[in-house]
């Protein structure tokens, strides 16, 4: 059975390789990722993952389609995918010295089966960041395109005091849950 990853994230491809999975194709879904007023972070992550899987499954009805979406939240506030330095500085100031949650919604569409989904949540505590530390991180550039503006698998890890939950979830794909979804749909895994 063909497996399609409905994501352009190179991190998700790397994570899948860790569990011995190489998708047959990568077809990112083109959906509206805006946050409707009042949508909670967990619901947002699950909705986007489900919509991505459904959109690609419509084009590839005979394949397994795996999709995911990762959200960084402080309380009920969903932080954006950071594309500019001003937004990065706002996010880093908000995360500084606080706990926040990283939630990834994972959805798997399989021919003739109902959509299988999971949401995984990891709690992270950031150290209090000095203006110099934020300046230094801003110069790194690894934050570009990252939810909340930092990469746990990069230099951003030095600012993390505590992580409670799945590391791979924070990077972009919770491996234990993804593996379980794939096995349940009949994808051959060891």
UniProtKB/TrEMBL annotation:
SUPFAM superfamilies membership: ITPase-like
Pfam families on file: Maf
Keyword terms of this UniProt record: Cytoplasm, Hydrolase, Nucleotide metabolism
Catalytic activity: dTTP + H2O = dTMP + diphosphate + H(+); UTP + H2O = UMP + diphosphate + H(+)
Location, primary (coarse class): cytoplasm
The protein's enzyme class: hydrolase
Cofactors: a divalent metal cation
Domain of life: Bacteria
Catalytic-site annotation from UniProt: 69 (proton acceptor)
Site (Important for substrate specificity): 11, 70, 153
Signal peptide range: none
E.C. code: 3.6.1.9
InterPro entries, sorted: ITPase-like_fam, Maf-like
Subcellular location: Cytoplasm
Family membership: Belongs to the Maf family. YhdE subfamily.
Function in brief: Nucleoside triphosphate pyrophosphatase that hydrolyzes dTTP and UTP. May have a dual role in cell division arrest and in preventing the incorporation of modified nucleotides into cellular nucleic acids.
This protein's name: dTTP/UTP pyrophosphatase
Organism, scientific name: Sphingomonas arvum
């Amino acid at each position: 059975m063909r497996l399609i990853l409905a994501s352009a994230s190179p991190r998700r491809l790397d994570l899948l390789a860790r569990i011995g999975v190489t998708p047959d194709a990568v077809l990112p879904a083109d959906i509206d990722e805006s946050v409707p007023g009042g949508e909670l972070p967990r619901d947002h992550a699950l909705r986007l993952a489900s919509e991505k899987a459904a959109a690609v499954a419509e084009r590839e009805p005979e394949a397994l389609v795996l999709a995911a979406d990762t959200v960084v939240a402080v309380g009920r506030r969903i932080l954006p995918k950071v594309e500019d330095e001003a937004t990065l500085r706002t996010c880093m100031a908000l995360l500084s010295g606080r706990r926040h949650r990283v939630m990834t919604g994972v959805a798997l569409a399989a021919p003739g089966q109902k959509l299988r989904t999971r949401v995984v949540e990891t709690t992270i505590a950031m150290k209090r960041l000095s203006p110099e530390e934020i300046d230094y991180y801003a110069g790194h550039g690894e934050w570009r395109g990252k939810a909340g503006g930092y990469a746990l698998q990069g230099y951003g890890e030095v600012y993390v005091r505590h992580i409670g939950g799945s590391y791979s979830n924070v990077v972009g794909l919770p491996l234990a849950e993804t593996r379980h979804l794939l096995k349940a749909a009949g994808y051959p895994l060891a």
